[in-house]
Amino acid sequence: MAGMAECPGHFGHLELAKPMFHIGFIKTVLSIMRCVCFNCSKILADEDDTKFKQALKIRNPKNRLKRIYDACKSKKVCAGGDDLDVQEQQDTDEPVKKRGGCGAQQPNITVDGMKMVAEFKAPKKKNDDQEQLPEPVERKQILSAERVLNVLKRISDEDCLLLGLNPKFARPDWMILQVLPIPPPPVRPSVMMDTSSRSEDDLTHQLAMIIRHNENLRRQERNGAPAHIITEFAQLLQFHIATYFDNELPGQPRATQRSGRPIKSICSRLKAKEGRIRGNLMGKRVDFSARTVITPDPNINIDELGVPWSIALNLTYPETVTPYNIERLKELVEYGPHPPPGKTGAKYIIREDGQRLDLRYVKKSSDQHLELGYKVERHLNDGDFVLFNRQPSLHKMSIMGHRIKIMPYSTFRLNLSVTSPYNADFDGDEMNMHVPQSFETRAEVLELMMVPKCIVSPQSNRPVMGIVQDTLLGCRKITKRDTLIEKDVFMNILMWWEDFDGKVPAPAILKPRPIWTGKQVFNLIIPKPINLIRFSAWHSEAETGFITPGDTMVRIEKGELLSGTLCKKTLGTSTGSLIHVIWEEVGPDAARKFLGHTQWLVNYWLLQNGFSIGIGDTIADAATMVKINETISKAKDDVKELIMQAHDKQLEAEPGRTMMESFENRVNQVLNKARDDAGSSAQKSLSESNNLKAMVTAGSKGSFINISQMTACVGQQNVEGKRIPFGFIDRTLPHFTKDDYGPESRGFVENSYLRGLTPQEFFFHAMGGREGLIDTAVKTSETGYIQRRLVKAMEDIIVKYDGT
Asked: Closest Cα partner for 632 from 676, 683, 662?
């Protein structure tokens, strides 16, 4: 016998003193009222009407009602009323029409809030001597739900079927409320505030109001109150019933609590993001999940995930006892929920009859006895498969499968290369881990979702993971021609190579001492079947030949790197990169191994070799600085010249632009060219050994624009794609005179970050930056909503395994 807590409750009901409109059906009721005669409830159109004939052919009931409504809404008379017409039809051979209308004039029916209004047209006199037809009592009448109910009740079952309603399950008159169902307390539980007082749910309050107003209405009817008072009471009851269903009706006041807070209706419980459907049914909290901060670990594989001990000893996986694992599981059960350091244990034993033993409280060893078919909820072990996810999940690579590796401390550790598909960084991001609870789920994770299987994205047929950050930088440095590795360092590099079989490759240089080249490190780890010719990012078409002068042709034959410097183009996420080729030619597992080995070997070498960047890397030599200053002052002079021309009305307007627009455009061109020229002189002056240039060339961090802004000139700041506008009275800041169109006044920053910005420049720079921040915030929500609409439109389009 289930207790009170498990009982879902049983509905009650309230018989209403008068029928009431159901606010959810009022539009449908209006459509049906416009389709049938107000007098005899027959459908207004008949077989003669082509629109009606077409409508009857439609199978979908909902669409059929729409089409019948289109056919009927223009009909103002219930056709086929007079006896004469019937007589004439009998005289001719035409069959008598089945539909015998009553000939009544049809009112124009509209809905106004929660009222239905019928408006009759005054009938025309045919001639003077004919008696005036009796005028309808009132031209405009408010239709009570009772009158509407009578019209709907008279609709025949055949007509119901034509209107797309099944009379067995959905008579149109059932859309008018005569009895109100009252939900049981579990739907609207009261909250105990303290020992004495308790606070009722909003629905309970609203139901109490409905019952009170219903009683008032009944009492007024019993006492024979005048009609207008009864109507008023009915309207009040109608309002409370409507707001009980939906308290956000357009054009209606909200029903409120005493405090003035709007009541939460049934409708608002269900709809929108926090409602029952999206909030509780489609988006649930789940068990067997963990969440913590992520940190990098370059020494684990890309498909591994470092999991803290505290998490591994809390989450469990149900393992069925078989002859093959019973000994292992017995050991885990002995360790129990608090195993010794470095070991994992188990939390529960589930017997075949479903009885669950909590190992925290099992004292007798006989209770810990295992039999085949029992389930043991054991702690997570190294090598278990889990799902790992970072929100927002924008593409399928936002959730991937990993193998776990239990580690000390309290963060998830993940490989650097796998951050790109998750769009993760380590500035405090948190990620979620989910533990599959059955063999089927584990099989799906292993076969469909593991990281190596997701390296190449189906969206653009290119890898979504590559070598990043310091490893990418190291790859460029280690594959340069002048990189030579001493014996001791090379031996230590070999220690990082998993497939090392004890055979050391022959050194490139034997005398005076054995020395290996950096390219030989890659020969160890590129799979043997790989052949590839690619070019470095800085390759120029002028360089030709088997081995190019700048060493920019990457040539791999049978897994040996013969020439070329590796960079982002060959190790990054572009189509046809080395990772893509390995994944396609040798397989996902080979690509996983290559990504891991590249990081371990190159990172160790870079640690020995060293790399740092200092302020000195941003300083150009004196001659270059002179050149840069000349470029900028020349640009400022050019702008002055343009201002003079514009002032004297001598500036030619460009086609399709006003003179002011042409002036702004020309100024922008001059200033942007100055920034680019200054930047390129700065870049050219940096030597090959410059560390900033090394990072940009490798593609690991930074761009040429960053170099030019640090060294030469930050350039023009824009707001809404134009120069800084006049904000105060005809000037940008109080530091300038009025009507100053010069470069400094309108946001041209001539200093570099190295030299520092003046207060005015700093302010303009902040204006440009602020716009970027606002843009990002606005676009995030916009794109999120666009994606949701796209997903909802296309979620039922699926491709099956056989391609259909």
From this structure: 676
